[in-house]
Structure formats: structure tokens, C-alpha cells
Amino acid sequence: MHQGYDLIGDIHGCGLTLIDLLEQMGYSKRNGVYQHPKRKVVFLGDIVDRGPNIRLACHIVRDMVEAGHADIVMGNHEYNVVTYLSEAPAGMRQPFLRPHTPRNNFIVEQTLEQFANYPQEFNEMLDWFLTIPLFREYEHFRVVHACWDHQMIDEYLRRYGSNHITKDMLPESVQTDSFLYQFLDRMLRGTSLKLPDGRSM
Question: Measuring CA to CA, which residue among 2, 109, 3, 14 is closest to residue 58?
Fold first, then answer.
């Protein structure tokens, strides 16, 4: 029985740093998987993009989750890379669900580069990303990547019946006027905060 949780967010490909952190917190590698005798990690998403050891980070996290030593919720970067590589259905103006703009290309560049020689492994990882819950509720706390909006979560559960997104839902998820787009924007990116001089963040 787990006696506590360790919440770890936004690894962004820093696989070696993740190992250092886990070891500092008393996790050790047994049977190829990092684990703790009494505690469990909850990863808050954004495993991919930016850092020098994205593959390593993905494997550590996935192995821990699959072995029951960690839980996870999806981050916007997992969602983004999946939609970036998902072909748009006929009728959409662009070839992929996430447009390949210079900014979007730059964001996923390191992830694509570091998985370039491992296409089968990358496809399996992308499939795994889609199994990651969007939000989780525990006895004493709730977990989401960016913003827990109870009203929107209740509506999502009413419409879709689970805390996941499926491959079939992806085309609707990029339609900016849809509830699904607005829901994911809130859960994975947060709320817009108005600042002075007409700015927002």
C-alpha cells in the first residue's frame, strides 16, 4: 500500500535529471523500473520536447506507470506531438491536425530528432500517449496538467464517459469552436490571465 505520492511535472526530456531526482527521493531501479517501497510518483505531463534525453525520460515514465509505481496525466506537449503527427481527415485545409508552422516545428524538433532512428518505438510511444488520462482524482487531491475546472470536467464526463481522449476524437479536438477544444485548452494550457496594458498570459 502506498503511503504517499510525489508529484513531478514538466520533465521536458531531461531524463538524466529525472533519474537524479528519483534517486534523491529514495526511488531505486529494481527489475529495470524505478520504484519506492512506500511511495508513488504522479507525473503531471510534458515528458517530451526540449531536453537532451527525451527517449530516456519517456521510457522511465512509461515503465513506472505500466509497473504500477507511478500514475500520470497528459500534458499539452504529449497532446501537441500526437496532433502534429496525425493526418487531418479529408475536408480540412491542412495536411495534419496541428499545423506545421515554424513555431510548432521548433517545439517538436528535439522529440522528432531523438526518436528519428526508432520509428516503431516512437509509434508505440505515441499510442501510449493517447492512453494517458487527462485528469485524475484521488482521495485527498486532484491532478491535472494546467487547470482543474470542475464544471467543464463534469460536462466532459457526461459527454464522453471517461477521463481519456481517443484517436477518433482528435479531429474534433482541433476545431476551435468545439467544447472539446475549449476543454483541452483549459485542462492542458490553463486560463488566460488579463494583465495591464491589454496584455494577457
Answer: 14
Per-residue pLDDT at 180? 97
CA-based max dimension of the chain: 56
Q: How confident is the model at residue 163 (pLDDT cuts 50, 70, 90)?
A: very high
Contacts of 142 (CB under 8 A, 6+ apart): 135, 136, 148
Q: Over 90: is that where the pLDDT of 122 sits?
A: yes
**Domain annotation covers residue 168:** no
Containing structural domain, residue 56: 4-146
| 8 contacts 43 by C-beta, under 8 angstroms | yes
Taking the model in full, what pTM does it have? 0.93
Q: How many domains does the chain have?
A: 1
27: CATH: 3.60.21.10
In a domain, 174, yes or no: no
pLDDT for 2: 66
